[in-house]
Every structure is written in structure tokens, then in C-alpha cells.
Amino acid sequence: MAHHWKRKLIYLYAKIVRDDGSPSYIARGWAIGMFIGCVIPMSAQLVISIPLSFVLRGSKIGAALGTFITNPVTVLFIYPAQCWVGNKIIGGDLTWEATEKAARGIVKLDFSGFLHLGGDLIASFFIGGFLLAAVCTPITYFGVYHLVVRYRRIKAALKAKRMAQKAEKTKAE
């Protein structure tokens, strides 16, 4: 199981650092995806994140993959937590159990069904989502930015080293 996750993380890392564009372009796309993944219900995330990445000039691949913070596995934890936090912020009285049950309904519904859940739950979802996004989006931007810069710096150093070795070898002959 650990090997499976390690492979997935290596694949994700490769997707991040090998994307074309400047580090800020790549990081902006991932931050857009993270923001939309935290705030918008799953069924509408890609429809919003990809056009938004065109407008904000971010990586389209990053915007799409960044939304995957919310997927059928993680939403079982993220949606209840964000609804509960949002409910507490607006002064609601939903218990954790009630919030968890209602949030599971969000997972099962499409976007139009989401609108029938009730004003308090919808408000809780979005307020909690904005709070989660306010925390996760800057972390994503700066984390991805530094991953890309570091990868490119290491890659350039290795290339320079190979070229120097090749020049030495040619000089010796």
C-alpha cells in the first residue's frame, strides 16, 4: 500500500515540475485548482477551474489536477469538516453527526441537487470552503512554486556538470 502511494506522489511531483511555463504560471494553476477544489462542489470543479486558469493565466493541467484535493475518498472527510466549521462561523447549531450526514448528501448529489439542501448547509459549505481555501491556496502556490524552482535548479546544475565533464573528456582526447 505504501509503495502505491509513493508511486502516486512521484507521478504527481513529475506532473508538477515538468509542466511548461514559468514557476509562477505553474503554481498559479495549481493554486486555482486548489481554491476551486475547496470551494466548489465536485461536479462543477473542472468546468470552473479550467476557464478560470485561462483568465488568470495559470497552468491548465495544474488547475485540473489541483481540484483533485476533493475526490470521492477525501470528500468523506473534507466536506463534513468544512460544513461543520462553516456552520460554527455562522453561529449554526448543527452537531458534528448532523453535519457529517448532511455533507455525505453533498457527495451523492449533483450540483442542482446541492441547491436543495437548505440555506444553512449551503452557507456552511461555502463559508467553510472559503476558510479552507484561504489556508490551502497560498500553501499550494508557494509549495508548487518552490518545487518547480528547486527541480529546475537541480536539473540545470546536473546539465552543467555533464557538459563540464564532456568538455574535459573532449579536451583530454
Automatic annotation (TrEMBL):
Domain annotation DUF2062: ranges: 7-155
S-adenosyl-L-methionine in keyword set: no
UniProt keywords, alphabetically: Membrane, Transmembrane, Transmembrane helix
TM regions (residue ranges): 30-54, 61-79, 121-149
Keyword presence, Membrane: yes
InterPro entries xref list: DUF2062
Protein name in the entry: DUF2062 domain-containing protein
Organism: Victivallis lenta
